[in-house]
Design goal:
The protein is mostly helical. It has helices spanning 15-22, 44-72, 77-99, 121-131, 141-158, 162-165, 171-195, 203-222, 225-229, 231-245, 251-259, 278-306, 312-331, 341-350, 355-369, 372-378, 383-405, 413-431, 444-447, 450-466, 473-478, 491-495, 499-505, 515-521, 529-541, 545-553, 558-562, 566-576, 586-603, 617-627, 632-658, 660-667, and strands at 114-116, 337-339, 480-484, 487-490. The strands form 2 sheets. Strands 1-2 form a two-stranded antiparallel ribbon.
Length: 668
C-alpha cells in the first residue's frame, strides 16, 4: 500500500496535461459558441465516416451473440438470420436511447454504443434448453424472451436503488461471476469446433478454428489503434473468405443470401407470446445486475474521456436506458443490452467526443437490421471460424473476472471459499450437465448451466459470510466502523460528526490531501460502510481536475515505494502482504526507475498503483510499461482508480483495527 511522502508538493503538470485540464476535463468544457464537444454535430461527410468506423468496431461483438445462441439451440438458418437482424435493429434503437436520450431521466447522452452483453449467453442457452427438454429449437425462445422482458423492467426500476444493491455485489462476487461465465462459455466455443463436422473433428475444420485464433492474436500483436480494435472482425472475415474459396461454406446458407428478402423487419413477439418462468427470470436478473456494474464503469470511463462530470443521475439515466433497451430486446426478439467497452476505447483513441457520431452509428445499425441479406451473409460464417473467435472473447471475459477478483482481499479466507466453491460447482455442471436431471423440472434451469450455478453460489456465499450470522459484516457496518484517536465510533456517530471530526476519523485513507473526505462528508447520512466507500469514490472521480492531479501527485511513485528503507517496506508488507520486495534485481530496479521517470515526464504525475499480495516486480514493470502507452485522459482515470483502491484497502484496515469481531474473524 502507498504511504505518505515526506514532502507532498504536487508535480508540475506537463503541457499535454495542462491542455487536457483546461479543455477536456472541466465540468463543462465548451467552445466559443457555448456548445460542449459532446453536443457538437460534425459535418455530414465526417459524421458518416466516423459512424461507420464505430459500426465496424462493434459489429463482430454484436452478431456473435445471436450466432452462438442459435448454434447452441439448434436453430435453423431462417431463424438465425431473423435473430441477427432483430439484434442489429434493436442495437441501433438502444444506441439512440442512450446517446440521444428520452427525457432527462433516461439515457446518459454520451458517445456510447449499445450491444448485446455476452454475460447473457450462458443463461439464455440454459433457459432455452430447459424449456425444450434439452432439445433446443424455436420452442424455447418464448421462455427466453419472457425472462428478458422481466429483467429489463427490473433494471429500469432498480436503477435509482442500485447503490444499495451494490453492497451485495462486491468485487469478489462480480469477479467470480465473470470468471465462471467465461470458463463455462469455453465449452460453447469447443462445440463450434466439432459441430461443423457433425461431431467428428477433421483436420481442415480444426485448421479454420485455430487459423482464425492465430489471425486475431497476430492482429492484436502487430497492429494498434483502430485496426487492433477490429481484430475479431478481421479474423471472422478472413476465416470465412478462406472457407468460401475452398468450398467449405454451407451451400444452403449461401443460397439463403439470394433468397432472402431485400427489406424486412422483425415484428413484436415474432416467435410467440412470452413465457415467464421463475428460474429463468432470476438468472436473467442476475445477469442484469452484473451489467449494471459494467455500465457504471463504462459511464465513468466515457465521462472522463469526453470531459463530462458523471453524477448519480448520470448512472441512473444510463442504467434506465439499459433497462428499456433490454425490455425492447425481449419484445423485438433480441437480447439484453449494455455499453460496448471497445467503442468507449475508440472514442479515446480518435478524440471524437460528439454523441451524434454514436447516434449516426445507431442509425446505420437500424438500416442493417432492416436488410435480411446482411444477416444471411453473417450466417455463412463456418462453425469452427466462429469457435476460434468466440474462444478469445470468452477467455477475455474470464480474464476480466480474474482482474476483478484481484481487487478483493485475497488474504481473507472467506473470499477464497467464495471463489473456489463457485468455480468448482460451475465446472462440475459444465463438464457433467446431466447433473440437472436429478432435480425437479422447475429447478433444472438453476443446474443446467455452470454460469448460473456459479453465480448463485457466489451471491449466497457472500451473503452468508459477510451479511448474516454472529460475525457478519452487516453487524460490523451497523456497529463499530472506525477508530478516532483510539476510540471506536459507530455509523450513528459518523452521521452526526462535524466536517473536521469526520476528516480526522478517516484521515488515514489518504496522504496529505483531505478534500475527498470533506466532499464525502457532504453525502451523509450513511446507512452502511458501503455508503462511505461510495461517497469517497464519487468524491475522487467527480472532483475538479486540478484537485485530482494534486491527489495523485501526493503519492510516491512505484520506484520510490519499492526502494524504501526496511522499516518503510515492512509497513507496506503488513498492509498488502508479502511482496518479496528485496528479491528485485538491479536490472529490474533500473527498469522500474526508467518507467517511473518516463511516466512522470509524460503525464506530470507519479506512477501510482495499489500493491496487491500477488504482485511481482515483473508485473509492476509490465503494468507501468503498458500504462505509458495510454492517453493523458485515460491514464488520469486509471491513476485515480488506483488511489481509490488504496483508500478502500486502508478503510478495510481501519475496520479490522476498530472491530474486534471482524479482527477475530480475519485471524481464524
Amino acid at each position: 500500500m502507498n504511504k505518505p511522502r515526506k514532502s507532498a508538493s504536487p508535480a508540475t503538470p506537463s503541457p499535454a496535461d495542462r491542455s487536457s485540464s483546461s479543455a477536456d476535463h472541466r465540468t463543462s468544457p465548451t467552445d466559443r459558441s457555448g456548445v460542449h464537444p459532446v453536443d457538437r454535430v460534425p459535418p455530414a461527410g465526417k459524421l458518416t465516416l466516423l459512424s461507420i468506423q464505430h459500426v465496424l468496431a462493434f459489429y463482430a461483438g454484436a452478431v456473435i451473440v445471436p450466432l452462438l445462441i442459435a448454434s447452441s439451440l439448434n436453430l435453423d438458418a431462417a431463424t438465425t438470420i431473423h435473430l441477427i437482424n432483430a439484434d442489429l435493429l434493436t442495437c441501433g434503437i438502444a444506441t439512440l436511447i442512450q446517446s440521444v436520450g428520452i427525457t432527462k431521466h433516461v439515457g446518459v447522452r454520451l458517445p456510447v454504443i449499445q450491444g448485446v452483453t455476452t454475460t447473457a449467453v450462458a443463461p439464455i442457452i440454459a433457459i432455452g434448453l430447459a424449456a425444450t427438454g434439452g432439445e433446443g429449437g424455436v420452442a424455447g425462445l418464448p421462455a427466453i424472451y419472457g425472462s428478458i422482458i422481466v429483467a429489463g423492467l427490473f433494471t429500469f426500476f432498480a436503477a435509482p436503488f442500485f447503490a444499495k444493491l451494490l453492497r451485495f455485489f462486491p468485487s469478489v462476487v462480480t469477479g467470480t461471476v465473470l470468471l465462471v461465465m467465461g470458463t463455462s462459455l469455453l465449452s460453447v466455443s469447443a462445440n463450434d469446433f466439432i459441430n461443423y463436422a457433425q461431431g467428428v473433428p477433421k483436420a481442415r475444420d480444426l485448421a479454420y478454428g485455430f487459423g482464425t485464433l492465430v489471425v486475431i492474436v497476430l492482429v492484436q500483436r502487430f497492429f494498434k489503434g483502430f485496426v487492433g480494435t477490429i481484430a475479431v472482425l478481421i479474423g471472422l472475415v478472413g476465416g470465412t473468405a478462406v472457407a468460401y474459396i475452398l468450398g467449405d461454406v454451407d451451400g444452403e446458407k449461401v443460397a439463403a443470401i439470394s433468397s432472402s428478402a431485400p427489406i424486412g423487419i422483425t415484428t413484436p413477439f415474432y416467435f410467440g407470446i412470452p413465457v415467464f418462468t421463475f428460474t429463468g427470470i432470476i438468472s436473467m436478473m442476475i445477469v442484469m445486475i452484473i451489467t449494471m456494474v459494467e455500465t457504471t464503469g463504462d459511464v465513468f470511463a466515457a465521462g472522463e474521456i469526453v470531459g463530462k462530470r458523471i453524477s448519480k443521475h448520470s448512472i441512473t439515466a444510463a442504467i434506465r436506458a439499459d433497462g428499456i433497451s433490454t425490455l425492447l430486446g425481449g419484445i423485438l426478439n433480441s437480447f439484453p443490452y449494455t455499453m460496448f467497452a471497445q467503442n468507449v476505447g475508440l472514442v479515446r483513441m480518435t478524440g471524437v467526443k460528439s454523441r451524434w457520431v454514436a447516434t449516426g452509428a445507431g442509425a446505420i445499425m437500424i438500416v442493417l437490421g432492416l436488410v435480411p441479406k446482411a444477416g444471411a451473409v453473417v450466417n455463412t460464417i463456418p462453425s469452427p471460424v466462429l469457435g476460434g473467435a468466440s474462444l478469445i472473447l470468452f477467455a477475455n471475459v474470464a480474464w476480466v473476472g480474474l482482474q476483478t477478483i484481484a481487487k478483493a482481499d485475497l488474504r481473507d479466507g472467506r473470499n477464497a471459499v467464495i471463489v473456489t466453491t463457485s468455480l468448482g460447482l460451475a465446472m462440475l455442471v459444465t463438464f457433467k450437465p446431466e447433473v440437472a436431471q436429478v432435480f425437479p423440472p422447475w429447478a433444472q434451469v438453476f443446474f443446467s448451466a455452470g454460469m448460473v450455478v456459479g453465480s448463485i453460489c457466489a451471491i449466497i456465499l457472500n451473503i452468508l459470510f459477510f451479511h448474516v450470522g454472529r460475525r457478519s459484516a452487516q453487524r460490523d457496518e451497523q456497529g463499530v466502523v472506525a477508530l478516532a484517536g483510539g476510540e471506536p465510533v459507530s455509523l450513528h456517530d459518523v452521521n452526526n460528526m462535524s466536517r473536521e471530526r469526520f476528516v480526522q476519523t478517516f484521515s488515514s485513507l489518504f496522504n496529505e490531501q483531505k478534500w475527498p473526505l470533506e466532499s464525502a462528508w457532504e453525502q451523509r447520512p450513511f446507512s452502511s460502510v458501503a455508503d462511505v466507500r461510495l461517497a469517497v469514490q464519487s468524491a475522487v472521480l467527480m472532483a475538479q481536475p486540478e484537485n485530482q492531479h494534486r491527489l495523485v501527485a501526493d503519492y510516491p511513485s512505484m520506484y520510490e515505494l519499492i526502494t524504501a528503507e526496511d522499516t518503510y517496506a515492512a509497513s507496506i508488507s503488513s498492509d498488502s502482504g508479502s511482496l518479496a520486495l528485496h528479491s528485485a534485481s538491479e536490472e529490474e530496479l533500473a527498469q522500474l526507475k526508467q518507467i517511473s521517470e518516463q511516466y512522470l515526464a509524460k503525464f506530470g504525475m507519479p506512477y501510482v498503483a495499489r500493491l496487491a499480495p500477488q504482485d511481482s516486480m515483473l508485473s509492476i514493470i509490465n503494468t507501468g510499461a503498458r500504462r505509458l502507452s495510454n492517453s493523458a485522459q485515460q491514464e488520469r482515470l486509471i491513476a485515480l482508480s488506483e488511489v481509490v483502491e488504496i483508500a478502500n484497502e486502508r478503510l478495510d484496515i481501519l475496520l479490522r483495527e476498530a472491530n474486534p469481531i471482524r479482527r477475530e474473524w480475519q485471524m481464524d
